[in-house]
Fold this sequence. Notes:
The chain is of the alpha+beta class and 571 residues long. It has helices at residues 9-13, 20-23, 31-51, 54-60, 65-73, 92-105, 107-120, 122-127, 130-141, 260-296, 308-337, 343-368, 379-386, 396-422, 429-444, 456-480, 488-518, 524-546, 553-566; strands at residues 147-150, 166-170, 173-184, 191-202, 205-216, 222-224, 238-249, 253-254, 298-299, 302-303.
Amino acid sequence: MAEKDERSFCKALFEGKIDEELVFPYPHLTGEDAENLHLIIDSVGKFCRDKVHGEAIDKEKRIPEEVIGGLSELGLMGMIIPEAYSGFALTQRAYCRVIEELSCFNASVAVTVGGHQSIGFKGLLLFGTEEQKQKYLPRLATGEWMAAFCLTEPGAGSDAQGLKATAVRKGDHYLLNGSKQWVTNGGLADFFTVFAQTEVDVKGEKKKRVTAFMVTKEMAGITIGPEEKKMGIRGSSTTPVIFENVKVPVENLLGEEGNGFKVAMEVLNSGRLGLASGCVGAARTMIETSVAHAKEREQFGRPIAEFEMIQEKIARMVVNTYAMESATYMTAGLADRGDVDFSLESAISKVFSTDRVWEVINDALQIMGGNGYMEEYPHERFMRDARINMIFEGTNEILRLFIALAGLQGPGEKLKEVAQAIKDPLHNFGQLADYAVRKITSLAGDRISRADSLLEDEYRRVEEYARQLPDAAEKVIRRYRKKIVEKEFLLERIAEMVSDLYVMTCVISRVTSAIQEKGVDAAETEIHICKTFCNFAWRRIRRNNRMIDRNDDKILVDIAKSTLEKAAYPV
């Protein structure tokens, strides 16, 4: 779990620091871990080609029991569970790679497996006692039990503190009441991680705080609602779950009472990586099907693959996918370290990948032309399935605010200290001198020394904008102080700047490793991908930085207000 003193690459960027040791060399799996993963991926691929029929799953709106059973037999329901509890004990990188492979075939299957362990029982894994793990994990590892995560309510989504569900202590149990909606695996689950408000003693005063509980299906008072009728991922189970006076034993408390918000946030930090890797799998399939079509489809006497506008789309799809993949597996590597705060990096991976896979699928469908719009081809299904990704596990809007505000916290605290010190400069001369030294040092900026020299143009741009990010951060903090939380236009730009800096660094690190391992000639395509992506990214960073001061924010707000007042098209 992340603690305040743990290092974070992205939080350091807000202070102009480039923590190279965290991102170089690129964290590839090696040795026995890589060999074992290769065997697992081969088995998963063969199973999916034989048994997972995406079109049928979509039409029937269910995953056949033989598919769920087969995935369980392969051990996929316990991938991240330690061997002591009958699991596979896969690393985060290996787990993400399996979710990616499943997503190449069908998003509903990937969501079902991911919902089970990325979030369903992840709280138990992170915060459970040894007794709780011994009791539940073996059944969850084998797939005998499926798990679900119950956080969202009709009136509370990303605002976890606004939950209405309650749990009242009654002797040796809690009485749980409330409704949860859009529960992934709701119709399949035997084990629920549930969040509810409890009364907690805070310095002698009773206050409401979110608490996490483990609830099992056999407990009386649980009602599973009907399956939702969804645009995409139709084969996955999504239902309401209602709790009416459910007696939850005190020993089913997950973590400490009142600590549920932390449990939820830690679970979602990890869960977002599975979602990001699923986007990589979908993008890979779209590239393969689109390239095959482009080479076969002829117009004006030659394959459409020979036309530059089609080639541009194919290149953009590859560049986006490579960048998604680089950020996702870099962040998974940070998670595997166990000594790093990767909360911003996982949020960035999720936002970046879910946005980019939408672009990849859109390009793929366009290459397919009218065929892409037809049900007999997978593209329209992949598009419907992908749309939820920007909403799942924290909407991309909320996560952009989180990325910016969490990153600004460090610089904000330092500015607060300086403001206090200025009130008594003689007694606080040392502190003010330290601040002056930090400012002077930041002008020179941190350097990247571990990237390959062939990528100098690219990593110099990371260095340049790593110097400018702290200036932008300090500017908005000084200008708006506490009101910064309401300046969402600016926060979005800050989030986009740090996101592009992080993904650029991930790509540079990965391509550096490719050059070192394969040589320049064999890594030529990856070098071209790196240069192309970094060109796209630094232009976005430059634009966002300029728009801190020069923008159309007020005009946009005025247009929105006019529309809201008329409750219709305002012209």
